[in-house]
Predict the structure.
Amino acid sequence: MKGKYDKNYTEKGYLMNYKKGPTQAHYSNRVLQFRIELKDISPLVWRRILSPSDYNFWGLHVAIQDSMGWQDKHLHHFQIKRKHGHKSARIGIPDFDGVFSNSPEIFPGWEIPVIKYFNALGITANYLYDYGDSWEHSVQLEGYLYKKKRSKYPCCIDGARACPPEDCGGVPGYYEILEILENPKD
């Protein structure tokens, strides 16, 4: 079954011809404030970031990677509903090769403006990074702010605790590493 964005995928690669949506002009001088929490880890690992309002989901993914300390070596997707929407969309890196043929379609993040889904305060998405380790995050829109002159975006403005190391085996592997580090004789 052909996906809605397959028309932009050719044998030469993906055609990067997405268009900004009409609703973005209203937000052009603003940034979006997000709170990102890494699920299933205690004490909580979290970040607060500011992202340009004209970003697409690929840009938000990169901002999250930078703020959390991930190295962007694995696949990812966001799962999110529109305000008053019934179905959720999966947005990230599509499975162009059909490896995960039984999975729901993942729409290309570089095609979809963030503001299309994060269009009301409190909207939350699940963000899954690394399908092997399955790092699940909650991404919540906390606010709309005006851009400050001479400030660079995206930026991380708050947070707590270091992120687990890449490829450590997910939540169980991370706790195992912590246990090993607590025992000097190990």
Q: What stands out?
A: Residues 6-161 form a domain with the Structural Genomics Hypothetical 15.5 Kd Protein In mrcA-pckA Intergenic Region; Chain A fold (CATH 3.10.290.30). The mean pLDDT is 87.
